[in-house]
Design brief:
Shape of chain A: flat
Order of helices and strands of chain B: EEHHHHHHHHHHHHHHHHHEHEEEEHHH
Distance between the termini of chain A: 81 Å
Largest sheet of chain B: 3 strands, antiparallel
Oligomer: heterodimer
Structural class of chain B: mainly alpha
Distance between the termini of chain B: 6 Å
Number of strands of chain B: 7
Number of helices of chain B: 21
Mean pLDDT of chain B: 94
CATH topology of the largest domain in chain B: Cytochrome C Oxidase, Chain A
Radius of gyration of chain B: 25 Å
Low-confidence stretches of chain B: 643-651
Radius of gyration of chain A: 22 Å
Shape of chain B: globular
Order of helices and strands of chain A: EEHHHHH
CATH architecture of the largest domain in chain B: Up-down Bundle
Largest sheet of chain A: none
Low-confidence stretches of chain A: none
Strand content of chain B: under 5%
Strand order of the largest sheet of chain B: 2-5-3
Helix content of chain A: 55-70%
Number of domains of chain B: 2
CATH superfamily of the largest domain in chain B: Cytochrome c oxidase-like, subunit I domain
Largest interface: A-B, 62 and 79 residues
Amino acid sequence: MADSPAIALAEPKDIPVGPIGRHGIGYWGVGTLVATEAALFAYLLFSYYYTGASAPHGWVLEPHPTLKLALPDTILLVASSGVAWIGERGILDQRPGQALWGFGGAFVMGVVFAIVQGYEWHSKPFSLGTSSFASLYYVTTGFHMAHVIVGLGILAALFLWTALDYFSPRRRLTISAGVLYWHFVDVVWLFVFSTYYISPYLGFGT
Amino acid sequence: MKAAAYRTPRIGIDSVQHQARMTELWETEPGLKGFLSTVDHKHIGTRYIVTAFVFLVFGGLEALLMRLQLAGPNKELLSPEQYNQLFSTHGMTMIFLYALPILSGFSNYLWPLLLGSRDMAFPRLNAFSYWIYLAAGIFLYVGFLMGNGPNDGWFNYVPFAERDFNPGLNQDFYSLGMVLFGISTTVGAANFLVTAMRTRAPGMSLDRMPILIWGTLTANVANLLVVPAVSLAFFLLWMDRQFGTHFFQPANAGQPLLWQHLFWIFAHPWVYAIVLPAMGMVSDGLPVFCRRPVVGYTLLVLSTVATMILGFGVWVHHMFATGLPTMGMAFFSGASLVIVMPSAVAIFAWLATIWLGRPVVTTAFLYFASMILLFVIGGVSGFMTASVPVDWQLTDTYFVVAHIHYVLIGINVFPVLGAVYFWFPKMTGRLMDERLGRWNFWLTFIGFNLAFLPMHLTGLWGMPRRIYTYPDGMGWDTLNMITTVGSFLLAVGILLFVVNVVKSLKSGVLAGANPWDAHTLEWSVPSPPPPYNFAVIPTIASRHPLWEDRLGEPARSSINRGMLLDEGKETIATTPLDAEPDMVLEMPEDSYAPFLSAVATTLIFVGVLVKLWILAAVGAVATIGALVAWLWPRRELREREPPPVQEAVHG
């Protein structure tokens, strides 16, 4: 047997059983979800810029949209990402109280964001069927709102499961995946916000 | 209770006792319960293949009806509206309900076997993907059978798809059905991506992956990124039709071309998605019959990836006739010409494999080899239309119809039929009849070429596509008659194929584990494979684990000795690049959650279609319930650490 070639054999020692921390295939799964969702928003914004670029003058119905509510609301949503992160740290540092405050706080901030956004819809001088601009505005922000609602559901589940003491610093993939999704919901809003509230000030479509 | 969070997996040799234990762990229960709850990738793969094949037959029958109508001038077998729905439903069926799902079926069945794993990365998601696909297919066909099939071609241009011109439910069925179908494709794509990256056998580094894996992987990365475009387009269309928005209506500053952009941003990569895995089948299957490894593995892999990347940047070549700026068209024309190069690389690699090998002519070989010829013909006609002026001459003529059929039948159906001949023994344990196989091959090959080669000429002589009949004396009569005869010959070939499958299932010659003396991992397990695939996890040392001796590879793969992983439904996760063992994966048991959430999701779509909001709400609540139950952290799956108290109790 001395001449026969070596047989490759993987003999791993002490490997984790199931996910450790955020290290596990579930995190990859949520990563693919975020990728495809990000693509969806990219197409929504493409639709806006493409339609706007080929539309007649005066396409944007509000050349100077008021930022009085939208800007603080945006800051609130982005801040909620930080609060959710503090919650995740709470799991890592084995401080369940901090985790509950983090997920609960982010949830409340998300709800306030959604209510303010609802008021924002209500106070617009146009409605869904006014023009292609109005349709795009409501459907794009509506898509985002749907994601906020899903994210709120996830935060609520994380809150509940943390309260039931389901996690530890090692077994917390669900937490990290859920918080990642909430970060996505917040980051993608920055693109939506810049498009509908900032780009008109820069002259696009007006 | 289970052992600690870290473990050193036991190494052992495949044995009868071990196999019995593994069967107990992995086997799906018989009966309806097992049918609705199984997450075994082999069951799911088989279902995909059978369902997709049923849709191929539906689409084929629709085509035959159209060919009867077009056999001669001024025929009145079909009314214009019937004809519209038939050609649209034919396209929808073949492109969406057949072409990708059939490849997903093969990949579902074969991937874990090719990768040396015991299941897909997300088995329940896999089951969900199938049920949603089936639901979307039924949803779309219910519309068709009610007289509400799509009636605006498979690419469904506005403004004709808008409500003013198309008041029935046809477009609503199509729109919502496509969004539903998109869910299936997307979750399937995510599953393929993570499976390829994380569940390969130890030692199967990226450069040792079979090319079928590469083809399906790149196709599904593309699907993940482009399916949202078409789902969005159909959703916006439905909003336009039902809720008074103006996305595509120029009267209210909408942009009809937005539809075409969103559609083709999706649909061009999709064309590659429905051929790249089939090209992978040829790259893996052809060398087996040439008795040598494929020539230019690295080049084939790079050309697969390059095709997909370039494939993102060619969509506008479907829109050359819409009056876009010249500069933009020049760019897309250039990209469409460049994309020929990676295809040519693949062609030469296959030809060299045949040339340098010692071909054994079987039916599977004939299908794989003939694909090369058909690919060249379809590729050349595609190359021609990449040129803007040529495209202006040919667009909306039968030349384009001939092109798409050479591409989709040539590079999808032919490799798929070859793949059935090739992998049928693995899936069923029995070989298909070779004598019947020859008749089957030559009838499909001659029938197909007789139908579609003259069609190029029909197009060049000016016959427009999508007309339900044509007048006498245009010079198209003979050509159309030839095409009709050819299409029926092709259909007889497919019928013979079905006969062969049924006959071989019953009385085919027993195959054994490796009837073709092939080189990849799936041939190392019994035919049909046991529920757990691999009794021990193999370790891979080369691209051809079963041909290492004869090729004099420096190291040998370990097939019969490896990690036992028998403390539950377990398999191994490896690192993305080098496939080093990374963690033990605890795989989910069979579950009703995928089936129930698919039913609930479908209820939402039925509810919004008929605007029965209560039904949609019930569906939404049920979907949420099923998902929460599905995702609930469970100790069996190690999503959390057992609390110390219980650890002590169960010890």
